[in-house]
Amino acid sequence: MLIPNFSEFTIRRNANAKSFQRGEAYYEADAVISLTQRGNLLQAEVEGNEVKPYQVRLCLNNEGLNSANCTCAYDLDGWCKHIVATMLVCMRRPEIVEERPTLEQLLNRLDHLQTQRLLQELVAEYPRLIEAIDRHVNLIVHPVAKQQSAKKAKPVRQATINPKPFGQQVRQILRDAVRAWEDGYDDDPITEELLGVVQTAVDLSERGDGNNAIAILEAITSACVENWDDVAEYGADNDEIVQELNDAWCEAILTAELTPEEKVDIQINLEAWQDEWDADFGLVSEALRQGWDYPPLVQVLQGNITERGVWEGEIPDYADDLALIRLKILERQERYQEYLYLAEAEGQTQQYLTMLGRLGRVEEAVEAAQTQMNTMEEAFALAKTLTEQKSLPQALDIAESGLKLPGNCQYSLGLWMSDLAEELGNREAALLARKAAFQAKPSLFDYQKLEELAGENWASVKAELLQIIRTYNGWGTESAKVNIYLHEGLIDDAIATVNDFSSYNSELIYRVMDAAISHNPDWVISNACRRAELIIDAGKAEYYDHAVQWLKKARAAYLESGRKADWASYKAELMEIHGRKRKLMGLFKEKGME
């Protein structure tokens, strides 16, 4: 198996029913045209609706799949169909995966001169690569200043990295976006690219080098502000990039050692950028004002906690963002007790409870959870942390409590708890959790798993599950309903589910029609003929092949019910009325419908 601890169930868990269905169709159609593995990286090309294939990238680690990304524009629930198709190839046809050397292995084959020549040839072939090399050389050759405690004296800020290439990169991204839009490209070519540049500064902050992070962020922000009008004409908005810049600036400022004069310079720039770019850098300004010496903050970090946390006046909307960034820095500096004080003071319950667990203070975490835990997400995070600490019974108790709380992760929490309960031999808890998952997102797989867990109690559990799907109106579960109804032979329920569907769901309707031919041929005939006639009467020649597919279903129902003469009469009437539609008549002949 290419991916450790991976199964088809994992795919179904991470993709909605429609994406899985379409991904399986892509797999069957051999849309995955290449699949290469280089160490812990799997890369695939998948044919889709665009001229160029989509690029799928799967990153692995020792425990299994770490991340999955695709270049398509899909932004709905779970994995896209291209990722699903790639995963299915990995599962079902691992022999077609081409194993290639990793980058490290390739470079190890070269000596110093060969490596230099390789880079020179790559730059000659891809001239813009020189800008990326310039930026990375700057990052490599200039050592990162050793991270210092926020309590030590602050030296004058001194950047050692040349920030100009980062501003140039931003300008190039914006120019490329304009060209793409002028060529008719519809998607957003800006945000992901810009966030990648900002991430360079974040990486420096995480290494304790706030000074160089600030230098890079100054170049990035200035370039955005100066050149944004060019992309604003095409409808680009700056909301997402401003939010990311706020976070990155805040972390850099709280990591760097700044003099009062430098703080003033940064504040002047922020105010100018806000006015010119119509942006809100309030979070950055507050981080600049407070630093780590803000008296209410100092009191909290010493354990003196009040209801107002670290705030003297009105608590701003960005208070949570600022608290989370401070917690990130405190954790990085291993200031764990101060972390706990701040998390408690600022109401960051998930961070507070999980840090207690990570520090091995399991009993304290469980006790605090009884009074402080308010959401499923907090319970899920703590339960996973307790599992990492090998405190499995406590993790199960926390997960079960979490299912009773409000939140948006009931499906994931239910599945996770069910697996843990089975591992601990607690079938009752496993059944309860799996039922909660099914309630949030029904599927045939979970339905069958519940049958296995219910054992001799299946009859009552089955009735409950069928009632759930009959009343469930969540988006994207039509396929799950049909799968379960057909699995149970409940043809009338399946018919009621798809009867008024648009032909966009044709594959699902076909399946119900195939199952209903012997049970209710009249419904198949009336529904299929209605759909075909809507297309034919409208003269939509581009959809005539779909009309013929519907008529094939109607014909099958006529013949199955012993009404061959009725089919012949209906077909003759169609041909008499629409006989001059040559494309339609050609399809009739081609599909054997004459």
Automatic annotation (TrEMBL):
According to its UniProt entry, this protein's organism is Mojavia pulchra JT2-VF2
The identity of this protein, by name, is SWIM zinc finger domain-containing protein
The keyword Zinc is assigned to this record: yes
InterPro entries (alphabetical): Znf_SWIM (IPR007527)
Q: Which UniProt keywords apply?
A: Metal-binding, Zinc, Zinc-finger
SWIM-type domain mapped to chain residues: 54-91
Example of a GO cellular component annotation carried by this entry? Cul2-RING ubiquitin ligase complex
Alphabetized PROSITE patterns for the sequence: ZF_SWIM
Molecular-function GO term, any one: zinc ion binding
